[in-house]
Amino acid sequence: MNRYLSAIACVLALALPAPAAPPNVVLIVGDDQAWTDYGFMGHEHIKTPHLDKLAREALVFKRGYVPTSLCRASLATMITGLYPHQHLTTSNDPPIPKGLTNAQAQKDAGFLKQRHEMIALFEKSPTLPKMLEKEGYVSFQAGKWWEGNACRCGGFTEAMTHGDPAKGGRHGDDGLKIGREGLQPVFDFLDKSKKDKKPFFVWYAPMMPHTPHNPPARLFDKYKDKTKSPFVAKYWAMCEWFDETVGDLLAKLDKNGQAENTIVIYLHDNGWIQDENSGAYAPKSKRSPYDGGLRTPVLIKWPGKVKAGTSERLASSVDLAPTILHAVVGKQSKSMEGINLLDAHWLASRDTVYGEVFEHNAIDITKPGANLQYRWLIDGHWKLIVPNAPNVKGTPELYDLSKDATEKDNLAGKQPDMVRELTKKLDAWWNP
Predict the structure, then answer these.
(1) Which of 99, 127, 141, 328 could form a disulfide with 156 if both were Cys (CB 3.0 to 4.6 A apart)?
(2) Model pLDDT for residues 230-264, shown as the tens digit of each residue
């Protein structure tokens, strides 16, 4: 009898499906690119065939946002799932000591001490690599990274960024070679993960199309006659160059047989509108509270799990960590205010996203409110921007994004009740 039952149990065990392997995760982060500047977003000239293909295979949130339009705070939100006022990384750099230039400050002992203190504050926050390592994941950092040594401070098991100021460490150091000088370090990591049969998390955040805008001549030549501005042509060429690197990464996943069980997420860290007369950015883009600095498409591809299509629902980069954690372990950290973008019911209940814009150089590294320039929210298609005195002058601005995507018609004076209603909602979220 026991032998008979044992045989039945063996047959049943063979019939049960093998447990699904945990999904790999690849997070691709573009650097300084406007939400309009992709083929799949309808740009007239910029060619992004690889991201276009990814968009066709992904769930695309065309109304995606980052809470802040400056890279360090934006990237810190992606890796922690927290708003800048929660993870305390609000500005790119510490205050510049009185009497010193920015260049002089980089060698000042007090300035460098505060930079280390900023990193120490960040280390207190959870990060995706730390949380995923507990689930057996290995992880790799390549590209932009501000928070010191990416392994020690970020929890990556392998990384390109050493973070040592004495060796040029600030916002990525050796990691900034990725993309512009090929992707071999990422490829080596993917090969190793395959050999070791380990689930993985990849942070691919090249400093592209970010300045310096020095695209290959073959790409600049492609765009130089499509605009009167050589600065615009170089920027457009950089967008396509970045797209080529994304294609290389996705092709490697396919070649390694890793694509089928990999969640690929794409967005950019903040916007960029190219000034036609210089290499700088134009107003209402980077560092601003306008969509030119804050809006980004968000793409999520997960073969067999996520149906390709386009969503008009609001998405935020604060949702990335919760979405990834729900896919891996079925829950997110209690400190995270974002939502699982793959949960249709949760997504349908979301009608508002929030954000905050800060000083480039902090005024007080421990007090987010001291560095605040603007708070903003989008409720449906209404957008409210509230300036923070004394850091900036101005009055609240209100825009109807359904009719005014470039935020030219400030309706605050005509809609005072709407301003009051949305301000209450903004204050309930965060009122420093």
Answers:
(1) 141
(2) 999 999 999 999 999 999 999 999 999 999 999 99
> Rounded distance, CA 175 to CA 48, Å?
23
Query: Residues 123-145, buried b or exposed e (16+ Cβ, 10 A)?
Result: eebbbbbbbbbeeebbbbbbbbb
83-122: per-residue pLDDT in tens? 999 999 999 999 999 999 999 998 899 999 999 999 999 9
Mention every residue, 6+ apart, whose C-beta is less than 8 A from residue 36. 42, 43
Dist. CA 261–CA 271, nearest whole Å: 30
Residue with tokens 């922690």: 80
User: Is 0.90 surpassed by the pTM of this model?
Assistant: yes
Please state the domain extents for the chain: 20-350
Rg (CA), the chain: 22
Label the pairing between strands 382-387 and 372-379.
antiparallel
Name every residue whose Cβ is closer than 8 Å to that of residue 3 and which is 6 or more positions away in sequence: none
Which parts of 94-190 are beta strand (E)?
Answer: 138-143, 158-159
Domain spanning 20-350: CATH superfamily = Alkaline Phosphatase, subunit A (3.40.720.10)
Separation between Cα atoms, residue 87 and residue 389, nearest integer Å: 22
Which amino acid is it at 362?
A
What is d(CA 220, CA 241) in angstroms, rounded to the nearest whole number?
Answer: 10
The DSSP H or E segment spanning 214 is none
